[in-house]
Amino acid sequence: MNERYDTIVLGLGAMGSAALYQLSKKGKNVLGIDQYVPPHKLGSAHGDTRITRQAIGEGYEYVPLALRSYEIWDELEKASGKKLLYKNGGLILGNAESNAIHGKKNFIQQTIATAEKYHIEHEVLTAGEIKSRFPQFKIKGLEVGYYEKNAGFLKPELCIKTQLELANKNSAQININEKVVSFSQDGDTVKVITDKGEYITDKLIVSAGAWVSKFFPEYKNLFTIYRQVLYWFDIKENYENYKPENFPIFIWDFGNGVDIYGFPAIDGVNGGIKIASEDYSITTDPEGVDRNISTDEIDRMYSKYIKDYMNGMNDKCIKAISCLYTVTPDSDFIIDTHPKNNRIILASPCSGHGFKHSAAVGEVLAQLAIDGKTDIDISKFKLSRFSQ
């Protein structure tokens, strides 16, 4: 084909769909390519809900991305007429010496510090206040809490679908079920070869998620893929307590690197609530990952993370699915122009905490492709940090 584009986006998940939308909004001649039909259940951006929050315990540098994403979600809702963001509040629980979440120590303390720095509305709660206000949790007595009024959840599949639909409306070309075989820079262009044709582009954005090592084998040591499992457990009693207007999204740090996170009941009395714990014990790859969830896994999730921590729940698992985390050594993002190929932009991985930032990352990627610079400081996410 040898069709020529201003920018091609490889991978149309969280970051890729956002980048394609932003580029199309600026009137660019863009092509998005995905080997599947996004949104799909084979990568990292599925599972009905994703947490969003404004004060970011992973570091100050993430807050501008989170705040800008809130603005873009609002823009997308107005443009599409679809509800994407639900601000039902967010609660982070832990002891006074909270351990690491997403590879970051003192997560609650850092969250409070970023809230204060950016004047984000929040409350710091004692164990007694948490127990009184949120009887859904079996508080032990040593916890502290951070409550953020405007935290909540996003609908990831709908976010991706909406951005692709709007990109298409803006005349972006979207090729699905098309697998990229290779790409290479030649002077001021990049050639992209797929199983269906060849394309020429001024810039290439690679947002391939768990497939990133295939395209950048020189950086394979920077990408570790972990299998994660998401569970929906039945509500035994007091369903009203778990509805979004009464129950926040939550992250609970038990210490020793163990935590759970969860969401309100959004699918009615028989839909249960989604709860998960991050697992960094099983490394895998997107082709060989075991997507089956065993009875032992379900039983262990209930007995270890739910039975002694949640009121009103039982051991009936309504459904469970797997997803993938692609994690860097420091658990931070990589958003950077390739050091040896200045027309190729790498936007992966998210290290398990990327969806909340994805709308703004899409805008950042569009700015990198068009202007070579960004409104938001992304120096923390450069590849060069790993060679220093």
| Largest pleated sheet | 8 strands, mixed
Backbone shape: globular
What percentage of the residues does DSSP assign to strands (E)? 25-35%
Helix content: 10-25%
* Chain-averaged pLDDT: 95
Span of the ends, CA to CA: 42 Å
Topology-level CATH name of the largest domain: FAD/NAD(P)-binding domain
Which H/E pattern describes the elements? EHEEHEEHEHEEHEEEEHEEEEHEEEH
Q: CATH class of the largest domain, please?
A: Alpha Beta
Q: Which consecutive residue ranges, at least 5 long each, have pLDDT under 50?
A: none
Radius of gyration: 21 Å
CATH architecture annotation of the largest domain:
3-Layer(bba) Sandwich
- The fourth-level CATH homologous superfamily of the largest domain is FAD/NAD(P)-binding domain
The total count of helices amounts to 8
Count of discrete domains: 2
- What structural class results from the helix and strand content? alpha+beta
What features would you describe in this structure?
With 388 residues, the chain is of the alpha+beta class. The chain folds into two domains: 3-46 and 156-220 and 330-387, FAD/NAD(P)-binding domain (3-Layer(bba) Sandwich); 92-150 and 223-327, D-Amino Acid Oxidase, Chain A, domain 2, CATH 3.30.9.10. Helix content is 24%, strand content 30%. Strands 1, 2, 9, 10, 11, 12, 18 and 19 form an eight-stranded mixed sheet that branches. An eight-stranded mixed sheet has the order 6-7-5-14-15-16-13-17. The chain has a three-stranded antiparallel sheet with strand order 3-8-4.
